[in-house]
Amino acid sequence: MPEGSLPKEKTVVTRPYVQVEGIARRYGPTTVFENVWFGVNRGEFVCLVGHSGCGKTTILNILAGLDAPSEGVVLADGREIAGPSLQHAVIFQGHALVPWMTAEQNVAFALGSKHRDWPRHRLAEAARAALAKVGLEGAAGRKPSELSGGMKQRVGIARAFAITPKMMLMDEPFSALDALTRGALQEEVSRLVTEAGQTAFMITHDVDEAILLSDRILLMTNGPRARVAEVVVNTLPKPRVRATLHHQPGYHALRDHIMDFLITRSRTLAGAPPDGYDPRRPPEVII
Amino acid sequence: MPEGSLPKEKTVVTRPYVQVEGIARRYGPTTVFENVWFGVNRGEFVCLVGHSGCGKTTILNILAGLDAPSEGVVLADGREIAGPSLQHAVIFQGHALVPWMTAEQNVAFALGSKHRDWPRHRLAEAARAALAKVGLEGAAGRKPSELSGGMKQRVGIARAFAITPKMMLMDEPFSALDALTRGALQEEVSRLVTEAGQTAFMITHDVDEAILLSDRILLMTNGPRARVAEVVVNTLPKPRVRATLHHQPGYHALRDHIMDFLITRSRTLAGAPPDGYDPRRPPEVII
Amino acid sequence: MQREVSAWRAALLSLVILALFLGGWELALQGAGQGGGPALDPEYAALLGQAAATGGQTPMPKPSEIGRRLFQLLSDPFYIRGPNDQGIGIQIAWSLGRVLLGFGIAALVAIPLGFVIGMSPLLNAALNPFIQVLRPVSPLAWMPLALFTIQDSSISAVFVIFICSIWPMLLNTAFGVSAVRREWLNVARTLEAGTWRTAFRVILPAAAPTILTGMRISIGIAWLVIVAAEMLVGGTGIGYWVWNQWNNLSIADICIAILMIGLVGLALDRLLGLAARAVAWNE
Amino acid sequence: MQREVSAWRAALLSLVILALFLGGWELALQGAGQGGGPALDPEYAALLGQAAATGGQTPMPKPSEIGRRLFQLLSDPFYIRGPNDQGIGIQIAWSLGRVLLGFGIAALVAIPLGFVIGMSPLLNAALNPFIQVLRPVSPLAWMPLALFTIQDSSISAVFVIFICSIWPMLLNTAFGVSAVRREWLNVARTLEAGTWRTAFRVILPAAAPTILTGMRISIGIAWLVIVAAEMLVGGTGIGYWVWNQWNNLSIADICIAILMIGLVGLALDRLLGLAARAVAWNE
Amino acid sequence: REAMAQPATPEKRDLRIGFIAITCATPIIMADPMGFYRKHGLNVEVIRTAGWAVIRDRAIAREFDAAHMLAPMPLAMSLGVGVASPQPWAVAAIENVNGQAITLANKHRDKRNPANWRGMRFAVPFDFSIHNYLLRAYVAEAGLDPDRDIQIRSVPPPEMVANLRAENIDGFLGPDPFNQRAVFDGVGFIHLLTKTLWDGHPCCAFAVPASMPREMPGTFAALMRAIVEATAYSNAPANRREVAAAIAGPNYLNQPQTVIEQVLTGTFADGLGQVQRVPDRVGFQPFPYHSMAIWILTQMRRWGQLTREVDYAAVANQVFLALDAGRAMRELGLEVPADTMRRERILGRDFDPAQPDAYLASFAIRR
Ligand SMILES: Nc1ncnc2c1ncn2[C@@H]1O[C@H](COP(=O)(O)OP(=O)(O)OP(=O)(O)O)[C@@H](O)[C@H]1O
Ligand SMILES: Nc1ncnc2c1ncn2[C@@H]1O[C@H](COP(=O)(O)OP(=O)(O)OP(=O)(O)O)[C@@H](O)[C@H]1O
Ligand SMILES: [Mg+2]
Ligand SMILES: [Mg+2]
Fold first, then answer.
1. Which residues pair with A48 in a beta bridge?
2. How far apart are CA A42 and CA A198, in angstroms?
3. D48 is a domain residue
4. C110 touches C166 (CB < 8 A)
5. Is the same domain home to B212 and B273?
6. Measured between alpha carbons, how far is E340 from E286 in angstroms, rounded to an integer?
7. Structural domain contains residue A7
8. Distance to chain B for A214, nearest Cα, Å
9. CA of E267 to nearest chain D CA: how many angstroms apart?
10. Which pLDDT score, from 0 to 100, does residue D44 have?
11. pLDDT digit string (tens) for D217-230?
12. Helical (H) or strand (E) element with B286
């Protein structure tokens, strides 16, 4: 394990690492979402699930400091997020590798931004080490165009982990990949996050993916004026393995609950919150 | 129901409508797939499931007459497929609407290709009728760029059904859509195919989709030298409804079987066919 | 980075830049040309230009002088006083006529030819070397050949515009046609649409934006070439007018000609831009 | 449609087309020159020497004659016999030198300026009108102004090349910089890469293909302009050579000049094409 | 050679005549505003043209029925020199004599001796021009080889001043008004008038296709009368100011009127601070002496433009239509020279048109 990530406490402390406090996003007269409150604890893996257009990407961008909420604040480690930071790495949906650099150079660019004083050869070494961690020793010298979709996304993952951030933000990182590759990468990410004891926040459309990876799953209603309708606590024991996940007891119940939400309740709940709904503390559901 | 599709027999006759007889596809030294044999009966809905690169699109293109096999033949209605035909409509993955025509014009273009003698207003009427069938009465005058992804794909479906083909060929028609839209369109297609008593052949990556729509599911091993490993008969009673599908008895068993195939057996079976495997008659599995 | 910019702020900044530029020019020339040379014989001085009479050289005109001259020219742009003396409006009209004729013929040739070339990869590869060699040839190199072979100077001028402006249209049409999305061709094939139906209803509209881009480049080149062509052919046109004003060393008129050529060129470009927008499709 | 074409077949077709064209030209002129022009006074004809004895139309040179002349010119391209008589190789070298100088300066100005403009939507909008108006102005309109203001002819020639070739680079650089994928900028931002690091390691390489496209267009225009510039400035260069050959009406030499200009233009274009490929990235 | 008897009416009335905007063209131009063409039943459009090569090409293409040319051009064209094949054109009348000058840039005020001109760049209007031959002869007399020791370029006359100003050339032997214009704009000074090199030298010509006298004798005769009359009118010192006013405007020369006046009246600023009074700075004499043609031919031989032997006198007789010009002059009551041959004094040497070969052989510097 790299030194940087050793002294992380694994226990959930009282104060969450990230606190989202009543943020809203408006474009002119339309409100994409409002009154969104949630927290992400240290070392926790949270997934955000919801239909297209409900504002998931916007929320993630706000957490990453790439965007700012129209209302409300987001605290990270107790301080307001004012802009992008090396502490919060983002894995983008479209891998976002710069195509004129090799895999190694892409990672080294990230490392060089963090460690400005490192000489070139040290950056290259560290980059190769990061690539080795995702099984890409052999592809270090190849350009993104010479890599398959899965390999590209792996480089993106290596780049994000190389700078040992405190939190990983992932926006549908695997949605462009085929089922087989997707499975492999899910396991990769799960392993790396666990190893480094990192906090993780991921957007996904894939219910199986959310169940495989998350500790908690935030379910959002449809937009406009989307909300966090409920928080599903994933009690399936860890470590989870994709090949046997659907044989695990509780899996089908959990999946059916989320499917039901996506198919019907995300729509019906959109207009009218149920009685007793408190946006500051969306109902936690344990199945 | 349009006159053209009325006199279709609904019973499965002895001779399948489409017979795929030992086709193979080679690019230079690499063989994508070989020795592929299967049939699609009249009025049957067949799904083809397999990992990326195993040659699914190639097979569909061969059925559509857009491509030719390196070996073997494909018979439709007893005659060899020599080229594209109005009898076999294709719904493409990327909707493939021409963006400079309105929805109505896109459909009218297809109708005009079939009915060369129809006057313009008759084409327009028929196109609007076809759009109405997929719930797009209001969007007839809009260009594809003004339609959402789901609406675009709906126009593509309307275009394909408007020319009342004998067989529908669909290449991952919904994979670019979000879960909600996808569900609505699956039901649309299912309804239209059933109404017109059409034969349908669909490629998909989504196991739930295959279960919802198909009568039989062809499972392909991974490429290269991919084969049809087995044919799963979907015995879940029709009509099936997406919202309740996962509550139907037998659903989980069927899904788990296919998931197991995709996660492990598609790979392990790729190199070595099991004993007694006859490519001309891949094992039929009923769960 | 903020991408939205208020049009007002941009226009204001444009005006400020323009004012600074013209003001600086005006100031820089304040007092120029008064170079206090040796006192001259008054009779001698009377025979010289204003600047030379004081020992200097004719200076650059000030923007205010150019403005006055511009007003004068534009206040009667369409007079005709003999074959060699016509208003600036008429000159521009002549040039426009020539450009549109040469460009029009080039379009009539380039678009069908480009279509055929674009449909055939073999033809494309075979003709490409010729196109590539002929494309960079300057109008002034074509002109003598044209005058010699065509033996008619006004047809020569049109020919030179034709030959210089045909290449971008040809290349773009061929490229646009050859790059039509495979998907759409497949749609046409599965619909058993015939060759003509496919060509006119699918390939042509699909390639139209690329073709229009080529036409836009071409009209730019045609307009760039007109001055060269008219200078040699003479008689009429803004190019000839530039030449003429140069003979007379009227720098103010040359500046005005540059402005006019720029504005008309801009207008032509915008016009084709509008046409391009009309055939554009986005997904 | 089959997209793969064997290079051999294409080259063969190219050669066949070329052979047909040249053969047709040669044949069409076979026996020309013996044509019965207006009957000449025999006494008069006798004075004109044997070539003239038949009189009539001025014949176009045959390709074979052009070929012979080409061979003659190319067999000693670098001779210098006095200031007015230098080999064609030297003339091309002069032209190339001018073009590269003007183009080089234009690139040095346009690329940093375009970078700044591309980064600022406001500046972009404010400067755009000026660029658009100046862009279509012909070299032959700039030349008089340059000669007048700069008062140095060789600098004037370079200036005209500069001013004509700067616009595509400027516009393309600004466009390329402003169109850098938001994604990559976001990557740089989340990595807290500084302004310079972002500019040089992300924006510049991302915009490089667009910039190179602009440079390619620019060098094409620069080469198009050189003939005009050298005709007016004179002395050396392929443009002056064309002018001289025109004054002597050596059609064969003008054809050769057209070919040479085309070939050198093609070479320049290919060179920048190679550079473009070197900085190209694909995903 | 005797032309045929003249019918009264022109066969073709609508004519196009090309000209270059220089004072040499005065008779061709002023015949239009002052009505000489109309008077002789012709409807002439005079078309300003950009340069001599364009004049030549448009003349060959018969876009012009007649044209203003440099006197050597019809000779060269008829002999097939500087054209792809011989083009029989003829000099129907000389336009002007004298009227050219050598203008130098102001910085060369101290280089009045041509022997010091080594390395300088000069412009002449065209390769086949009296200007070229005079400049070459002048520097050769000073011991310089015009091909090796100086550079001579063809520059269209209108571009000469701009090029002089931009120091692209050090001087030019060019037609007026550009010599005077250089002075007017403070760019250069008049080193000498060509009158001092060869008094009465021909400069520009009124050229017609060689076939015109045969094919359109009526038109040709009317045209000759108009031109000869205009030439005579222009030549009268009393008319010079009126002529200057008529041709200075934008439709013709497009120059400040004072510049044209200085050229035509011969009272001019020389750029060196002096007002010079040379009333015969330019003259307008229509008669095409054959001796002029022969001298031009010797110079074409001398500088290697004409590489074969020709019968000078016969060519001169064919191309310089002295008899036709003489007839027109006689009809208008002008004095016609008795002989088409005239002994000339050129650059201090005697030129006997009967002995061209001996004259040619007397030069040390030649090709
Ligand atoms: N610049 C903008 N102006 C107006 N509306 C915008 C703008 N940017 C985004 N939106 C709207 O904000 C909403 C949320 O967008 P966002 O990308 O966050 O959705 P999402 O949940 O990530 O969707 P998906 O699952 O499709 O990625 C969308 O409805 C979109 O139309
Ligand atoms: N022109 C070609 N030359 C060489 N190989 C090709 C060519 N076209 C396709 N292939 C190969 O053929 C194989 C099958 O391609 P195909 O598109 O049919 O796969 P698929 O099963 O549809 O995959 P996906 O699920 O990703 O759409 C792929 O491995 C591809 O690399
Ligand atoms: Mg999103
Ligand atoms: Mg596929």
1. A203, A218
2. 7
3. no
4. yes
5. yes
6. 12
7. no
8. 20
9. 28
10. 57
11. 889 888 888 888 88
12. strand B284-286
Q: Which segment of C233-237, D47-51, D198-202 scores lowest on mean pLDDT?
A: D47-51
Q: What value of ipTM does the predicted structure carry?
A: 0.79
The mean pLDDT value for C121-144 works out to: 84
Neighbours of chain B (3+ CB pairs under 8 A): A, C
Q: What 3-state class would DSSP assign to E78?
A: helix
B105 shares a domain with B121: yes
If you search the block for the tokens 């041709």, which residue do you land on? E247
β-strands E275-277, E267-269 pairing: antiparallel
Task: Say if D155 falls within a structural domain.
Answer: yes
End-to-end CA distance of chain E: 33
The predicted pLDDT at position B202 comes to 95
Structure tokens given for A38: 């949630």
Determine B/E contact with 3+ CB pairs under 8 A as the test: no
Starting from the edge strand earliest in sequence, which strands make up the sheet with A167-171, in order?
A88-91, A167-171, A199-204, A45-49, A216-220, A228-233, A284-286
Please report whether residue C152 resides in a domain: yes
Which pTM was predicted? 0.81
What is the distance between the alpha carbons of residues E181 and C58, in angstroms, rounded to a whole number?
A: 11
pLDDT in tens, E23-80: 888 888 888 888 888 888 888 888 888 788 888 888 888 888 999 999 999 998 888 8
**DSSP letter (8 states) at residue B226:** B
Cross-chain residue pair A145–D183, CB shorter than 8 Å: no
The parent domain of residue A123 ranges over: 98-164
Answer yes or no: do A178 and A268 share one domain.
Answer: yes
Query: Residue D161 corresponds to which tokens in the numbers above?
Result: 């090349």
* pLDDT score for A101: 92
Q: Where are the alpha helices (DSSP H) in E166-253?
A: 178-184, 212-215, 217-235, 240-247
- In the predicted structure, residue A1 carries a pLDDT above the cut 80: no
- What CA–CA distances, in Å, run from C58 to A3, C36, C48, C246, E271? 78, 14, 10, 14, 14
By the CB < 8 Å criterion, does D49 face chain E? yes
Q: In this model, does residue D3 exceed pLDDT 50?
A: no
Range C14-21, long-range pairs (CB < 8 A, 24+ positions) = C14/D125, C14/D126, C14/D127, C14/D129, C14/D130, C17/D126, C17/D127, C17/D130, C18/D130
Q: Which of A134, A164, A194 is the last residue of a domain?
A: A164
Give the E-state strand segments of chain E in sequence order.
14-19, 43-48, 66-70, 89-94, 97-98, 100-105, 121-124, 151-154, 171-175, 188-193, 204-209, 267-269, 275-277, 282-283, 344-346, 349-351
A58 lines ligand 1 (CB under 6 A): yes
Q: CA dist D46 to B273, E150, E356, Å?
A: 98, 37, 20
Does residue C242 sit within a domain?
no
Contact B109 C201 (CB under 8 A): yes
In whole angstroms, how far apart are CA D151 and each of B196, C31, D162, E86? 84, 19, 16, 41
B92 to C282: CB separation less than 8 angstroms, yes or no: no
Residue B3 in domain: no
Six-digit token string for E313: 């006198």
Q: Is the dihedral of CA C223, C225, C228, C230 positive or negative?
A: negative
d(CA B240, CA B187): 9
Q: By the 8 A CB rule, do B123 and B108 touch?
A: yes
Please tell me the distance from the alpha carbon of residue E55 to that of residue E63, in angstroms, as a whole number: 9
Could you give the CA distance from residue C203 to residue C208 in angstroms, rounded to a whole number?
Answer: 8
CA nearest to B263, candidates E245, A212, D190: A212
Determine the Cα angle at A207 with ends A229 and A270, to 5°: 25
Give the position of tokens 């006359």: E157
Q: Given D1, D223, D254, which is nearest C145 (Cβ)? A: D254
As for how many domains chain B has, the answer is 2
Q: Tokens for B163?
A: 């020319």
Nearest to E168 among D51, D153, D246 (CB): D153
Q: Which residues contact C182 (CB under 8 A, 6 or more apart)?
A: none
Q: Is the CB of B56 under 6 A from ligand 2?
A: yes
Whether the CB-CB separation of B157 and B192 falls below 8 Å is answered with yes
Ligand 1 centroid to Cα of residue A276, in Å, is 29
